[in-house]
């Protein structure tokens, strides 16, 4: 370990470690936690790069899902304008499923961002938000899959490809 690096960890606490009653002071506990967090980040620089990739991926996925939902919604509205709403229940349900996935993707991206916070409470909230987002995505994907399957079955019965 270099002398510069070694000195960084041997510096004394900014305030007294023990309070007047001989107990470890709250300020010292907070400072120690901060130092441990900093040391942990320095020991695992690749982890930060990996976390950044995860975060970027979740936002890319969210934006991609949003673009897909916009396109599918436009297609649906064009079809409704040309043919009317009758017989398009499956398509409407598929559009609904895709928009549920959009909500889930954005919740997941926000949750992933919060999980990178140094504050453990925010990390916990981010994890919960990410889980909720995953459920939205899963329910949306299932809704879309059921609707598209129904649309395929109806199209085959009518002899029309969707």
Summarize the entry for a quick read.
The protein is mainly α and 162 residues long.
How large a portion of the residues is in β-strands, by DSSP E? under 5%
Count, helices? 5
The helicity comes to over 70%
State the major sheet: none
Based on CA atoms alone, the radius of gyration comes out at: 26 Å
- Uncertain ranges: 1-10
Molecular shape:
rod-shaped
The average pLDDT value, as a whole number, equals 83
Distance between the termini: 66 Å
List the helices and strands and how they pair.
Elements: H1 3-10, H2 26-43, H3 45-83, H4 89-115, H5 120-158
Helix pairs in contact: 3-4, 4-5
How would you portray this structure in words?
The protein is mainly α. 81% of the residues lie in helices and 0% in strands. The chain has helices at 3-10, 26-43, 45-83, 89-115, 120-158. The radius of gyration is 26 Å and the shape is rod-shaped. The N and C termini lie far apart (66 Å). Residues 1-10 have low confidence and may be disordered.
Search tags:
single chain; about 160 residues; mainly alpha; 5 helices; about 80% helix; rod-shaped; disordered N terminus
């Amino acid at each position: 370990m270099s002398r510069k690096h070694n000195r960084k960890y041997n510096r004394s606490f900014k305030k007294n470690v023990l309070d007047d009653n001989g107990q470890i002071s709250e300020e010292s506990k907070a400072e120690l936690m901060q130092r441990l967090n900093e040391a942990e980040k320095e020991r695992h620089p690749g982890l930060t790069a990996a976390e950044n990739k995860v975060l970027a991926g979740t936002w890319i996925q969210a934006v991609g899902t949003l673009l897909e939902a916009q396109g599918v919604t436009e297609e649906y509205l064009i079809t409704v304008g040309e043919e009317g709403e009758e017989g398009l229940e499956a398509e409407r349900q598929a559009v609904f499923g895709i928009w549920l996935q959009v909500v889930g993707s954005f919740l997941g991206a926000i949750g992933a961002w919060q999980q990178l916070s140094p504050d453990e409470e925010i990390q916990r909230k981010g994890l919960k938000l990410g889980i909720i987002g995953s459920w939205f995505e899963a329910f949306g994907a299932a809704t879309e899959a059921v609707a598209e399957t129904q649309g395929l079955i109806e199209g085959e019965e009518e002899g029309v490809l969707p």
